[in-house]
Give the backbone structure.
Amino acid sequence: MRKLVSFIMWGFLCLSLFAQTSTDVARLRRADGSWTYVDSDFSAEYEIIQDTPGRGRSITKAAVFRRDRNNIYTIVVLEPQADRGQGYLKQGDTLWIYDPESGQFNTTSSRDRFRNTNARNSDFTQSTLAEDYRILSVSSVRLGRFDAFLYELESDKSGITFPYMKVWITDDGRILKTEDYSLSRQLMRTTAVPNYHQISGRLVPQQIFIVDELEGAVVNGTFVHERTILTVSNPSFAPVNDSVFSRTFLERIRR
Amino acid sequence: MILSSSFRYLRGHFRHYLFVLLVVALGFGFITTSSSLADGMQQSVERSALQHYAGHVFIHGRDRQARSLMVMDDLAIIEEVVDSLLPPGVQKVYRVHGFDRTSLLSGGSQFPLKDLFGVDFIAEASLFSQLDYLQGQYSTDWDPNTLVLSAPAAELLKVRFGDSLVLRVENRQGQTDTRELVVRAILRDDSVFGYSRAYIDHTTAAQLLGLSPASYSVLGLVLPDPLTSRLWATTIRQALENRLPLGGPIETRNQLTTELRKSWQGVRYFVFDLPVYLGEITDLLGALRLGSYLLLGIMNLVVLAAALVTYRVVLHQRTRELGTLVALGYPHIFVVALLFFELLMLLGLGILFGTLLGLGATQVTGLFAFEWIPGFELFLTNGRLVPLFLSSRFFANSGIMVLAVIPPVLFMALRMVHRPIPNLLKGQLTAL
């Protein structure tokens, strides 16, 4: 009889752990969903402000077109005027960068920085945390005025720039903050997403603050980190013409 | 007897030969200066390149799927082939090479490294103990956290001996890894190789790049005779051809670039020699050598012209004297030999003075710094032009000068002594 009780208790424990784990995974998938739009196209205007201590501020405005179901996107630089028409086109695993001056396409990496900012090219595409990382731990925490779940994630998949991550996620799947760590667990980058647009029941980050934890400069005796602020405006889920996701489109808008 | 007679005659007519002596000395001095400086510049480039790349022949692998990370997954096969081919005296240098995928961070500044070398500081003690350090010194106590940095990188990062900084690496899996390292030495190297270069312990480098601890990226072979590098590269490549996936034959920098741009799966191996790495610098050195030969030719022509003109005058003045010798029964060949040895002694003396002049001139050149000439630092040692006096170069230069001057002058002397004796005794040399 005691054995039976013990067996049932163990069973319940395993089931509750499994249920807990599947809830955690589901929440992580919801978080991916707040950055991923597989059932429609997505377009928006991004303003990218780069603050480099000692070197001032630069502002880039870009139009972003995404078709997450095909894992493709196009970015067209609108400002500064000198770089207007510069474009990025992701087709499968290849990320093309187009220079309107020379009319040449070159390949770049999703892991590379976007126009020397602290944002990476991969920051403009869908989120695949649940697919790329395994959950090390989940804990319930408070982040500012939000109740959140702190996920510690780990990945040994090829091509994942940061093998360790901490992600603060609300129960409805808003990613509030992330910390990106190197393989040796050095904090490399902190990202905060304080605001989201809510459009037809879907979430779109409104502002993304990215702080480089290693780069910056000492200003008036204090170390000031390099940071990037991405502001997303005019988000839309309207269909985007197929031709936008082509090299011809980038060449055409140059003319 | 001829030698002593030649010496006596030379001494007797020395004032007539002063001009020839001066021209030979100046000409040879110029040749000595230019060729020793050219050789010194070449040595400076080769030494910098050898210190940088550690070998005359290289075998390295590239993993195309890991953004062409340099790695040799089949080191055992490579070692087996190399060991079966190479003669004793060839030094093998194993290194991990993180090319274009690392950067150093300090005080908020980032410095992308072109070349991060993971080296065995003990095995390469002979190299590291000879390097010119601005701060710190080579020590056998260097640990896995040691960082040896080139001066330009240290200056840009504002770090000094003993400072800690972070090395950021993109590993084989494309992940970011970091390590805190301590600056144990700063290299005084302003050359094109040194600009963005750093050395760390090879196990640390392997770990950071996601390789196994015993893995290396490149095997460099330091040959006793660097001139055989192309031959050895070809031989090793042929021997590896059926055992490993190899890139095509590589003899120029462009061929290397073309080969590396191709697509392949997994790790492909490449075998080539140091001049391939040096690329345009090899062409520049070739042009430098050609320029030095051109100068040698011009100087020899100047010396020859001066010698011919002076000898014509001297022979004219000595026609009666030489005619008397012929009239006394000395064979023509004796008279010509007398003139030959006279000339040889004169040239010897000129070469001696020229060498001394060259030595002096190169010492003066060494007093000036030439770092301000853009791109020229590659040819300098510690910012100075340092001459290299090679005995082979001295004998070659002397031989060329002697061979250029003596035959025409002897021909002139030969024609003179074959004139009829009465004409010689009358001092008639108009036919010459």
Notes: The longest strand of chain A covers residues 202-219. The radius of gyration of chain A is 21 Å. Chain A touches chain B at residues 53, 109, 111, 155-163, 182-184, 186, 188, 214-218, 223-226 (CB under 8 Å). Residues 22-254 of chain A form a domain with the outer membrane lipoprotein receptor (LolB), chain A fold (CATH 2.50.20.10).
